[in-house]
Design goal:
Number of domains: 1
Number of strands: 0
Distance between the termini: 7 Å
Order of helices and strands: HH
Helix content: over 70%
Radius of gyration: 16 Å
Structural class: mainly alpha
Length: 73
């Protein structure tokens, strides 16, 4: 894994990275859309953040699966 630092980073910190990215997305959507939609933007932002978390976590798990199967330890 020493030859692939980005894969190592994703395998090691993928779950926390997905959580941070989803939280950041929800906050940014809330801040950007609050002036236009008011409090209606909050459930939209939470949905988008949750979807981002699921996609990011699944990507990290897929990378972990591939590295465990294909790269020597």
């Amino acid at each position: 894994m020493r030859d692939y630092p980005v894969l190592h980073l994703i395998v090691r910190h993928g779950a926390i990275g997905a959580a941070i990215a989803s939280l950041a997305l929800a906050v940014l959507i809330s801040l950007a859309g609050f002036a236009a939609l008011g409090w209606l933007i909050v459930p939209i932002a939470l949905f988008a953040g949750g979807l981002m978390y699921v996609l990011g976590k699944s990507y990290a798990e897929l990378v972990r699966l591939i590295t465990e199967m294909l790269l020597p330890h």
